[in-house]
Amino acid sequence: MPPIEVLAPAKVNLALHVTGQRADGYHLLDSLVAFAPFGDRIGLTLAAAPMLRVTGPEAAGVPEGPENLVLRAAALAGRTAEITLEKNLPPASGIGGGSSDAAAVLRALGAAPEGLERLGADVPMCLVPRPARVRGIGEKLEPVTLPPLPAVLVNPRLEVATPAVFRALSWRENPPLPELPAFGGAVDCIDWLRERRNDLEPPAVALAPVIGTVLAMLRATPGCRLARMSGSGATCFALYATLVEAEAALARVRIARPSWWAACGALGDQTASAQPRDHIIREV
Questions:
Q1: 62-67 contacts: CB < 8 A, separation 24 or more?
Q2: Separation CA 138–CA 124 (nearest Å)
Q3: CA distances to 80, 162, 203, 283 from 1, in Å
Q4: pLDDT tens by residue, 169-208
Q5: Global confidence as pTM
Q6: Which of 82, 83, 130, 272 is deepest in the core (most CB within 10 A)?
Q7: Could you give the CA distance from residue 250 to residue 94 in angstroms, rounded to a whole number?
Q8: What are phi and psi of 47, to 5 degrees?
Q9: Residues 153 and 126 in one domain
Q10: 172 and 200: one domain?
Q11: Could you give the CA distance from residue 217 to residue 252 in angstroms, rounded to a whole number?
């Protein structure tokens, strides 16, 4: 059978409020997520034995063994497959790369098995890549409607350890997100987001000051209405009223910092673009 091809889109935390911590150490979150029109790509063929090949501009250092989430996802679904993972997103960057990859494998297999949380808290929210409000430790998902949000994403080629960022939090009992209103368009939504926050941003900047440099650069681009860190970093995003403004800002960033990873597109619902090209799964 020909490979099934699936997009694993980048996940962006537009807002992330830390609202508490459970007795077992897990942090409680209230987050608003949306997905980018770009990301990693999965090629999958059912086979008698599992195999993974990692390609792409961000492939360096990505394991090809059974510890990789894409092979673990296929195993959880009870399938064996030969998988090609084209890595376009930088690793450990706060935009859900590995989780989105695992979710893409499950979409390709038409599977949503029990125990998804064993693959990581972000995998369930990436399974259907559409805007959502995410609560608890990531298990409480509420689909929401957002307008397309023109954005630039920038990563300074820095991996930030999520546990270290959470340990550096000075306060964990923060207010949750308010209820989402009906947005009239991108500017209306961005204005609402400006009153929200990412509670992980201050400790991440303290641990890795280059994140503050990224944010300052994005805020200085013409038309930037909001710049914020995604997840636990180090990727940051900036939102604009139009895609033309976002594309111009991307060009400025690439000229100023050619070694950094950067991309742009309209954040929102990517369920259509992330569907497998071949929906027919045939056993080998």
A1: 62/87, 62/91
A2: 8
A3: 14, 39, 48, 9
A4: 989 999 999 999 999 999 999 999 999 999 999 999 999 9
A5: 0.95
A6: 83
A7: 19
A8: -150, 170
A9: no
A10: yes
A11: 9
Contact in structure between 256 and 217 (CB atoms under 8 Å)? yes
Which residue among the candidates 11, 40, 199, 269 is catalytic per the annotation?
11
Catalytic residue among 30, 40, 101, 122: 122
Mean pLDDT of 89-116: 93
Torsion 91-95-98-100 (CA) sign: negative
Look up residue 205 and give its two tokens.
């900047």
Last residue of a domain, one of 91, 111, 143: 143
Question: Can you tell me whether residue 167 is helix, strand or coil?
Answer: helix
Length of the chain, in residues: 284
Q: CATH number, domain at 224?
A: 3.30.70.890
If you average pLDDT over every residue of the chain, what do you get?
A: 94
Annotated catalytic, 278? no
Catalytic site includes residue 122: yes
- Look up residue 121 and give its two tokens: 């808290």
